[in-house]
Specification:
- The structure holds two protein chains of two kinds.
- By secondary structure, chain A is mainly alpha-helical.
- Chain A has helices at 2-18, 23-32, 36-45, 52-64, 78-113, 118-132, 135-149, 165-198, 202-209, 214-252, 257-266, 270-298.
- In chain A, helix 5 runs antiparallel to helix 10 (214-252), helix 9 (202-209) packs across helix 10 and helix 11 (257-266) runs antiparallel to helix 12 (270-298).
- Chain B is of the alpha+beta class.
- Helices cover 29% and strands 22% of the residues of chain B.
- Chain B contains 15 helices and 21 strands.
- In chain B, helix 7 packs antiparallel against helix 10 and helix 13 runs antiparallel to helix 14 (465-476).
- The longest helix of chain B is centred in the first third of the chain and has 18 residues, at 14-31.
- Chain B is globular, with a radius of gyration of 23 Å.
- The chains are: A mainly alpha, B alpha+beta.
C-alpha cells in the first residue's frame, strides 16, 4: 500500500506539472506575460526554476514530515485548506452513503420479499430511473424546483455541523438526496438480486424445510449471506460517491475538496492540487483496505495471514 | 455621470463639447489639481442613507489571493479596490481624480509630477500616511524584486523624491501623460513603508489588510467567502454606510441566479449578461447595465503563417460581421466597438465610420484574397479559451462568416494557462479570440500590446515602427486634443493593418435586491459602488 501511495504521489506531481502554464503566468496575466524580468523573479520565488525532480523531492520531504507545504496563492499551510475542504466532502459522502444504504437495502429487501408483485415492479422502476438520471442533473432540478416553486434554496454561506447544526442540515439535505438517490437505486437493485439468489441456496431451503420461521430464515440465513458481497459493493459505491461529490459540490456551491482542487488547478497552485489529489488517493486506498478487513468480520472463513 | 443603459448614440455636437470641457479640465489640472469635496469621492453622497447593515455579494470568479500588487487577476482587483488606494482613482466616466493625493501639478517640461498628499489618512494598521510610504510603495511596485505587472505602468518613472512629509515628486525619464492613470490603476496601491520587507508579507495580505481604504479584511476563507468590515478610522467622514460585506464564492452561474431569486444574494454581476432574462419577473430585484472597459477581440498573428500577409488580415477584417457575433456571443447584451472598449469610445475612440476595413463585405474580402494569390481561399485556425463562455458561439459565428469569404477554419479550444503561455511567447497560431482591457487610458491600453520590442511586448509580432513612434508621441503629448488626434490616427492605422479586430464590449449586468440603495456599477467591474451603498 505504501508503494501504491508512492507511485500515486509521483503520478500526481508529474500530471500537475504536465499541465502547461504556471502560477506566474496566471499572476501576471496577459500584460505581464511579456515581461521576462517579472517572470523570472516570481519563478524563483516559487522555486519553479528548480529541476522538477528536486521540486518533487522537496514535496515528498514535506509529506514525510506530515506537511503538504504552503499554498502558493494563500501562503497558508495546504493541510489546513485541504482538510477544511475535505471535511465538507466527507460529510456529504458519508451522509449520502448512509442514505443510500438505508433506503437501498430496505427497497432491495422489500422487492425481493414481494418478488414479482406490484411492489417489486414499482421498486424496479425506481431503480431504473435512479440509475439513469445523472446526480448533477437531479441536483440542479431540485434547486430549480426549490427556488421557483417554494422560493427556498439551501443557505449560501457554508456552515459546518459544529458551527451550526441546523444550518448545516439545511445545506446538506438536497445534495445528500441528489447523490444518494442514484446510489440507493444501485444498492436496491444489487440487494434484491442477492436476496433472491440467497433464498435459493441449499442451506436456506433446508432451513425452510426443517420448519424454521420465515423471519429466522431471512434474518439468520439469508441476510447474513449477503453481507460480504454488500460490503464489497458498498466500498465500491463509497469510492464512487467520493468521485461524484465533486460534481454535486459545484451544483450546490459547497466548498468541498473538488472545488478546491479545481480552483487551485485553474490558478496553478501546485501544492494545493498535489495535496488535494494525494489526500483523495489516500482516502480511496484506506477505504479499500477497510473493506478488506470488513470481509473478515462478516465472514469468519476469510482470514489474513 | 453614469450610463444606466448602454450609451445611446449621442448627437454630433457632444464630442467637441466634451473635448472642450476635458481640455479645460486638463489645463486646470496641469496647473494644480483641485481636490474634490471629500463627499464626492467615489460618487454622489446619499444624504438620506441610513448607516449599518450587511450585504452578501455573489462572485463567480474568486480571487486567488487578496494581494493588490502581485495578483493581476480582475477577480482580485474587483475586491481589493475596497481596501487599498493609490494616489488617484478612476472615476465612472474614466476621469482620473485625486484619492490619497489632494492634487498634483506637472513641471513645464512635463518631467516632474508633484503630488500633494491628503493629511490625516491612516492605514488599517494605525500607521499615518506620509510621503515616505508613497515613495516606498511605488518604488517597490516598479522594482525587479516585486515581479509586479503594474511596473509596466510606471516604467517612465526615473526616481521618486520625498519633498516633505506631505509632498512627493515623481521624476520621469520622458514625458508621459499616462502617469496619472498609472498611479490610479488597479495594479498600484500605497502600503506602509517597509511592509514588503518582512518575511511572508504577501501571504499575510490574505489574513490582514494594510491599506487605507474604507473596508478592512476580516476573514478570507479560500473557496468560500471573503468578509470585509467598515474601517472605523476611515478618512472620508460620511462613508462607507455599510458595516460589512461578505463576498460569497459561487462558481456556477445557475447557482448564482438561484441565490438572487431566493434573496440570499444581495448583489451580483452576472457571468453572462444575457442570463438576466432568466430573472425576468422575479419580485424585489433590479438590474443595471453598464458599458464596460473590457473588449472581446479577435487578434491576428503577424509573425508567421498566412496571417503574416496584410491582405489576408484585411480579408478577415472585411469578412467579420461584429453585430452578428455580438448577437451570437451574448445575445446582443453589449456594444459593437471600433478600436477601444465601449466605456472608452466617447473619450478616446476614433469614430467607428471612419475606420477602414470594416465588414461585413465578403465580396471584397474574396477579391483581396485573390489579388494576394489565394483565389481558392486559405485555411486558418481560430483559438478560443476554455472557461470564456462567449468564445464558443462567437467562434462558430466567425467561422461561418469567414467561410463566406473563402476562408476555411478549424476551431481549437485551449486552457487559459496554455493560452497565456503562447500569448506571452507571441506564438499563438493564426487568429485567436481574446478578452482584455480594464484600463481607462489609451496609453495603458495600447503601448504594451502594440509597440515594438523592447518598448512594448508586441504580442502580435506586428513590428511596426511607424505605429510605435505614433504611440510614443501620443503618450508624450500633454493636451487632450493632441492626444486624441494622435490616438485616432493610430486606431485608423491599426484598422487598416487589421492587426487586431476588437469585436464588442459585453455589458456588465449588475443585479441587486431592492433593499440595496445607491449601488452604481463601475465600468471596470470593480465594486467601488459598495462604498456608497446603503440598506434599509
Amino acid at each position: 500500500m505504501l508503494l501504491t501511495a508512492l507511485i500515486v504521489s509521483i503520478l500526481v506531481v508529474l500530471l500537475v506539472h504536465a499541465v502547461p502554464g504556471n502560477i506566474v503566468q496566471q499572476m501576471l496575466g496577459q500584460l505581464g506575460a511579456g515581461s521576462s524580468d517579472a517572470r523570472a523573479t516570481l519563478e524563483a520565488y516559487f522555486g519553479l526554476n528548480r529541476p522538477m525532480h528536486m521540486q518533487y523531492l522537496d514535496w515528498l520531504g514535506e509529506l514525510m514530515r506530515g506537511s503538504l507545504g504552503d499554498s502558493w496563492n494563500q501562503g497558508t499551510p495546504v493541510v489546513n485548506l485541504v482538510l477544511r475542504a475535505f471535511a465538507v466532502s466527507a460529510e456529504l459522502a458519508v451522509l449520502s452513503l448512509l442514505f443510500a444504504l438505508l433506503v437501498g437495502s430496505l427497497l432491495g429487501i422489500a422487492a425481493a420479499l414481494f418478488h414479482d408483485t406490484v411492489v417489486d415492479l414499482g421498486i424496479q422502476a425506481f431503480n431504473v430511473l435512479g440509475l439513469s438520471l445523472p446526480a448533477f442533473w437531479v441536483g440542479a432540478m431540485m434547486l430549480v424546483v426549490a427556488s421557483n416553486v417554494f422560493g427556498w434554496g439551501p443557505p449560501f454561506r457554508y456552515a459546518g455541523p459544529l458551527d451550526n447544526l441546523q444550518l448545516n442540515a439545511q445545506i446538506m439535505v438536497l445534495p445528500m438526496l441528489a447523490l444518494g438517490l442514484f446510489n440507493a437505486a444501485a444498492i436496491s437493485q444489487f440487494v434484491r438480486d442477492l436476496v433472491l439468489e440467497a433464498v435459493r441456496l441449499d442451506f436456506v431451503r433446508t432451513a425452510t424445510a426443517k420448519g424454521a420461521s420465515r423471519t429466522t430464515v431471512y434474518a439468520k440465513h439469508t441476510f447474513r449471506n449477503i453481507l460480504v458481497p454488500l460490503t464489497s459493493f458498498t466500498g465500491v459505491i463509497f469510492i464512487g460517491i467520493l468521485g461524484g461529490v465533486v460534481a454535486i459540490e459545484a451544483v450546490f456551491n459547497l466548498p468541498g475538496i473538488g472545488r478546491l482542487i479545481l480552483w487551485a488547478l485553474q490558478t496553478r497552485d501546485y501544492p494545493v492540487v498535489q495535496g488535494g489529489v494525494f489526500l483523495m488517493a489516500a482516502v480511496t486506498l484506506l477505504v479499500t483496505l477497510a473493506v478488506d478487513f470488513l470481509y473478515a468480520v462478516f465472514d469468519p472463513r476469510i482470514t489474513y495471514a | 455621470m453614469i450610463a444606466r443603459v448602454l450609451s445611446p448614440q449621442r448627437p454630433a455636437w457632444i464630442r467637441p463639447l466634451v473635448a472642450t470641457l476635458v481640455v479645460l479640465f486638463a489645463l486646470a489640472s496641469a496647473v494644480a489639481q483641485e481636490s474634490q469635496p471629500l463627499d464626492e469621492i467615489y460618487g454622489p453622497a446619499a444624504p438620506e442613507a441610513s448607516r449599518g447593515g450587511e450585504v452578501v455579494v455573489g462572485i463567480v470568479y474568486e480571487p486567488p489571493a487578496l494581494d493588490p500588487v502581485h495578483q493581476q487577476a480582475d477577480a482580485t482587483t474587483a475586491v481589493t479596490v475596497l481596501m487599498y488606494q493609490g494616489l488617484a482613482y478612476t472615476d465612472w466616466d474614466g476621469t482620473i481624480r485625486p484619492m490619497l493625493a489632494t492634487g498634483w501639478s506637472a513641471s513645464e517640461d512635463g518631467l516632474t509630477w508633484t503630488f500633494e498628499l491628503r493629511k490625516g489618512v491612516t492605514f488599517h494598521n494605525g500607521h499615518e500616511l506620509t510621503a515616505a510610504d508613497v515613495k516606498y510603495s511605488y518604488d517597490y511596485i516598479r522594482s525587479e524584486g516585486c515581479g509586479c505587472a503594474g511596473s509596466v505602468y510606471l516604467n517612465a518613472v526615473d526616481s521618486i523624491e520625498v519633498v516633505d512629509d506631505y509632498t512627493v515628486a515623481f521624476h520621469l525619464s520622458s514625458r508621459n501623460s499616462a502617469i496619472l492613470a498609472g498611479v490610479a490603476d488597479k495594479l498600484t496601491a500605497v502600503f506602509p513603508e517597509g511592509y514588503f520587507d518582512g518575511e511572508g508579507a504577501q501571504a499575510r495580505l490574505n489574513q490582514k489588510s494594510v491599506g487605507t481604504g474604507p473596508f478592512i479584511l476580516e476573514q478570507f476563507i479560500p473557496n468560500q467567502s471573503i468578509r470585509l468590515v467598515r474601517n472605523p478610522n476611515y478618512w472620508q467622514p460620511t462613508v462607507p454606510y455599510l458595516d460589512a460585506i461578505t463576498f460569497v464564492s459561487v462558481p456556477d452561474g445557475n447557482t448564482l441566479l438561484n441565490g438572487l431569486r431566493t434573496g440570499q444574494i444581495d448583489l451580483a454581476q452576472l457571468a453572462r449578461p444575457q442570463d438576466i432574462v432568466q430573472l425576468a419577473g422575479v419580485n424585489g430585484l433590479s438590474h443595471q447595465e453598464q458599458a464596460s472597459w473590457v473588449q472581446k477581440s479577435l487578434d491576428l498573428q503577424a509573425g508567421g503563417g498566412v496571417t503574416a500577409e496584410k491582405a489576408v488580415r484585411q480579408a478577415i477584417s472585411l469578412a467579420v460581421d461584429k453585430g452578428e457575433i455580438l448577437q451570437a456571443a451574448v445575445q446582443g447584451y453589449g456594444q459593437v466597438i471600433g478600436l477601444v472598449p465601449a466605456g472608452m469610445q466617447e473619450r478616446w475612440g476614433a469614430p467607428l465610420d471612419e475606420l477602414p476595413m470594416r465588414g461585413p463585405d465578403p465580396e471584397r474580402a474574396r477579391e483581396l484574397l485573390a489579388e494576394a494569390g489565394y483565389p481558392d481561399g486559405v485555411d486558418i485556425q481560430i483559438t478560443t479559451i476554455i472557461g470564456f463562455d462567449w468564445m464558443t458561439p462567437a467562434a462558430e459565428a466567425l467561422a461561418s462568416q469567414l467561410a463566406e469569404a473563402g476562408i476555411r477554419t478549424t476551431i481549437q479550444r485551449q486552457d487559459l494557462g496554455v493560452w497565456i503561455n503562447n500569448w506571452g511567447a507571441r506564438a499563438f497560431v493564426d487568429i485567436t479570440l481574446n478578452d482584455w482591457g480594464t484600463v481607462p487610458d489609451p496609453s495603458l491600453l495600447f503601448d504594451a500590446h502594440f509597440q515594438m520590442r523592447p518598448v512594448g511586448n508586441d504580442f502580435r509580432n506586428w513590428n511596426n515602427e511607424e505605429a510605435t513612434k505614433l504611440f510614443t508621441r501620443a503618450k508624450q503629448a500633454t493636451e487632450y486634443d493632441d492626444r486624441y488626434e494622435l490616438y485616432a490616427e493610430a486606431q485608423k492605422m491599426m484598422a487598416e493593418e487589421a492587426i487586431t479586430i476588437p469585436l464588442f464590449s459585453s455589458s456588465i449586468v449588475a443585479v441587486t435586491q431592492d433593499r440595496l440603495h445607491n449601488y452604481v456599477q463601475h465600468p471596470s467591474g470593480w465594486y467601488f459602488g459598495l462604498i456608497r451603498t446603503w440598506v434599509e
